[in-house]
Every structure is written in structure tokens, then in C-alpha cells.
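A reminder from the course coordinator: this example appears on the midterm review sheet, so study it carefully.

Given structure:
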């Protein structure tokens, strides 16, 4: 078994060899703990029939582990230096494709040529939410995502009422998330200033709504969370530019107490509110 020390040495040697360094602006913290690497790969439940999309592969430690199990690994790297390193170090692996691109500017269906896929990544923390939404909101969703994220972000994603947030709504609308394991800062080089967690997100087999209705659903959710800890009737009325009586009517029609707060609502509550809104406003 490879020790953390040897993975640390490997990371330093690669950075020195290619005259590179971890770029703080790109959120680069390289995984150097084999036990954590194994937990990520195990949680992803990979077989030879799977196509894996990895975002931010960095030095390729996770990429190589994924390639041992998957049929194909598409590693998307924004950093030109890292992409160049990966093309050399992964050149002997026929099932690995290095794509130098911004994942947020990439159509997922084009990336995987319309094939089914899973996402596995040690995500740059500064783009965690946009990346998760990019995949989940895509017309071509993944089967699942296993991602390393900040521990606090993971806690928000899996939250239940009365601690829901716009982020937890955005993920749980499409999927069922759970925390696989917490991860200390010492599992990375250089170590981040925050603790981390491995998050498994199982995407629902069928979308809850048509995409046009999804847009209206999130319009309502954004209105509800527009002012934290505010009564829903006030937040909804203000966010949707409705008078308070109309806002109260919408909530009551959806069997929601107007004095409740957005943090207390379930996904089903929001879906009922959507139906009320479509019947009375749209």
C-alpha cells in the first residue's frame, strides 16, 4: 500500500519536474492519502462499463486509480501546465482522455458523446456549487457524483428542514446526497485551511419536472431564500413582486403557513407551491 509520505514525495517530485506549483487561485490541493483515495473510488462503485468524468485531475493520482476500474476516464483540466503534465504521465493509459477546458463552459453531452457517465472528482472548492449545478441541471445528467468538497458545504447539501438552504434545495431537487466520510486537511498537499468531506450524490432516475417548470421552481426558491430568516409571505411577495395578500394566498393554497420560513420547507412543499403559482399567477 502506498503511504501518505510516498504520495507526498510523488506530488513534490512531479511539481518540481514540470516546474509547476499548486495554484491557490485555482483551488489546487492535491490528494496524498491513499486511504481517502480508496474511499472515493469505492463510493463511486465503478465497473469496466462506466465512463467517468473527472473535474480538476491535477497531478493525476485519482485519475490513475479511476482508470484501473473504469472503461473510460475523461479528465477535464483547466490549468494548461497540469494538462500538459497529465498528457505525458497518462500517455500509457489507453482509456484516459485529457481535456484541457473549463468544465463550466462545456456541454456535458458533447464531452461524453451522449454516453451515460458518472462524475468523480476532488473538486476545486471555489467552484463546487457551480460544478454540481452544471451537471445536475444539464439535459444529460450523470448517474451519480462522488466529489470531495468542503465539510461545511457537504453539511449544507445534505441538510434537512429546518436547516434547508438554496444549495440543499438545488441538489436534493435532482438527487439524494449523503456524506461518505470526513477528511482532514492533512490528506492534501498543500493542506487547505478547511476540513473536507467525500459526498456521494445519487441522481434520481427521472427528473421531477420538465425543464421549463424547473426554471419556475427555482425562481420561487430564490424568492423564498432572498432574505434569510424572513417569513415566507414577506420573502415570496417581495421576490415575486406580489402584494402581501396575493403572496399569502399562494402559500395557503399550497398548504403552507405564510409565517413559516424557507429553511423549514421540504422539496414537496416547494413543488406544491409551484403548482399554486402556476394556477394563480402564470
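Designed residues:
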Amino acid at each position: 500500500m502506498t503511504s501518505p509520505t510516498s504520495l507526498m514525495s510523488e506530488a513534490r517530485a512531479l511539481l518540481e519536474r514540470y516546474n509547476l506549483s499548486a495554484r491557490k487561485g485555482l483551488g489546487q490541493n492535491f490528494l496524498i492519502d491513499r486511504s481517502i483515495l480508496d474511499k472515493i473510488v469505492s463510493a463511486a462503485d465503478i465497473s469496466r462499463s462506466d465512463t467517468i468524468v473527472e473535474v480538476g485531475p491535477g497531478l493525476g493520482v485519482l485519475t490513475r486509480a479511476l482508470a484501473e476500474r473504469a472503461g473510460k476516464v475523461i479528465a477535464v483540466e483547466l490549468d494548461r501546465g497540469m494538462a500538459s503534465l497529465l498528457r505525458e504521465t497518462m500517455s500509457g493509459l489507453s482509456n484516459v482522455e485529457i481535456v484541457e477546458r473549463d468544465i463550466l463552459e462545456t456541454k456535458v453531452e458533447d464531452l461524453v458523446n451522449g454516453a451515460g457517465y458518472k462524475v468523480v472528482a476532488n473538486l476545486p472548492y471555489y467552484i463546487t456549487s457551480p460544478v454540481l449545478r452544471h451537471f445536475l441541471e444539464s439535459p444529460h445528467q450523470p448517474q451519480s457524483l462522488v466529489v470531495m468538497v468542503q465539510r461545511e458545504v457537504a453539511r449544507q447539501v445534505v441538510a434537512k428542514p429546518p436547516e434547508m438552504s438554496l444549495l440543499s434545495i438545488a441538489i436534493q431537487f435532482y438527487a439524494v446526497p449523503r456524506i461518505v466520510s470526513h477528511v482532514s486537511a492533512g490528506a492534501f498537499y498543500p493542506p487547505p485551511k478547511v476540513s473536507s468531506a467525500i459526498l456521494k450524490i445519487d441522481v434520481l432516475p427521472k427528473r421531477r419536472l420538465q425543464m421549463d417548470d424547473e426554471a419556475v421552481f427555482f425562481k420561487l426558491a430564490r424568492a423564498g431564500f432572498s432574505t434569510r430568516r424572513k417569513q415566507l409571505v414577506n420573502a415570496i411577495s417581495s421576490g415575486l413582486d406580489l402584494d402581501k395578500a396575493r403572496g399569502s394566498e399562494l402559500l395557503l393554497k399550497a398548504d403552507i403557513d405564510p409565517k413559516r420560513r424557507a429553511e423549514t420547507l421540504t422539496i414537496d412543499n416547494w413543488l406544491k407551491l409551484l403548482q399554486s403559482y402556476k394556477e394563480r399567477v402564470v
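The domain at 211-280 is CATH 1.10.8.100 (Helicase, Ruva Protein; domain 3). The first helix runs from residue 4 to 17.
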